Amino acid sequence: MNSSVPARTRTAVITGAGSGVGRATARLLSEGGWALAMVGRRRDALEETARWAPAGERPFLVHVCDLADEAAVGAMGKAVLGEFGRVDLLVNAAGTNTPRRSLEVLDPAEYRRLIDTNLNGAYWCVQAFLPSMRARGSGTIVNVVSDAARQASPKAGPAYSASKFGLLGLTQAINAEERGRGIRACALLPGDIDTPLLDKRPAPPPAEARARMLRPEDVAACIRFVADLPARAVVEELLVRPA
Questions:
Q1: In this structure, what CATH number is given to the domain that contains residue 201?
Q2: What is the spatial distance between Cα 242 and Cα 35, in angstroms, rounded to a whole number?
Q3: Helices 158-178, 108-115: crossing angle, 10 deg rounding
Q4: Where are any strands of DSSP class E within the chain?
Q5: Is 5 domain-assigned?
Q6: Fewer Cβ in 10 A, N or C end of the chain?
Q7: DSSP secondary structure letter of residue 57
Q8: 160 in catalytic set
Q9: Backbone angles phi, psi at 214, to 5 degrees
Q10: SS3 156
Q11: What is the predicted pLDDT for the residue at 68?
Q12: Would you state the pLDDT for residue 1?
């Protein structure tokens, strides 16, 4: 397979790259010389992230994709592999919530949307890139989960919590089945992060509360740490909370 990526350049796919943790991760990895494929729902947001790419040095791809659509994710995966030839790192950072999130008011359509985006979308992305990782005998997958996967709460809501519990289980399953093939997965469990997702809370936190939270770049640094470790080291879970 022909590739536009030099053999020694590492490659990454980042979902949710148009904002928050995904954008911060794209920026940090770009500064480290990675070739990136950025995936998200909004082209304008992805292209804003892409402005950090050093011009002309390496591929910096933008893919608009509905992660809930299995066929669309499969097509995206084929396109990325066609361009890159391989993917060394998959970062599932896309996630959402809904303001009307309690069991009393949660709409069934919103429940399905959250499960489709936060859990099923990550699963389809894993399936899009896992076969090529198996064939090569190496690969790292980082799923940005949440500390809501450790303890459900009214703050997170049942749909979000269920999706994140599931994503934690998916990460464990990848390690259980694939570590013998050179593939490792990390469940990154951050606490509150100051991102646009906070605006979807029933009562968005004030500025003084946001100032005490993690920043997207803090979580991005954790992702880079996991990716930079030698292949013999597997960080299965990483829990990080505000001080």
A1: 3.40.50.720
A2: 30
A3: 30
A4: 11-15, 35-40, 60-64, 89-92, 139-144, 183-190, 237-240
A5: no
A6: C
A7: T
A8: yes
A9: -65, 155
A10: coil
A11: 95
A12: 46
Lookup: tokens for 42: 């909004």
Instruction: Residue 85: give the domain boundaries.
Output: 11-240
Give residue 12's Cα distance to chain centre. Answer: 11
Q: Of these residues, 117, 160, 214, 219, which one is catalytic?
A: 160
Decide if 149 is inside a domain.
yes
Q: Amino acid identity, residue 99?
A: P
Confirm whether 2 is domain-assigned. no
What's the structural domain count of the chain? 1
Task: Give the separation between CA 217 and CA 224, rounded to whole angstroms.
Answer: 10
- Whole-number pLDDT of residue 5: 78
Q: Which residues of the chain have pLDDT under 50?
A: 1-2
The verdict on residue 17 lying in a domain is: yes
Amino acid 57: pLDDT = 56
- pLDDT per position as a tens digit, 109-135: 999 999 999 999 999 999 999 999 999
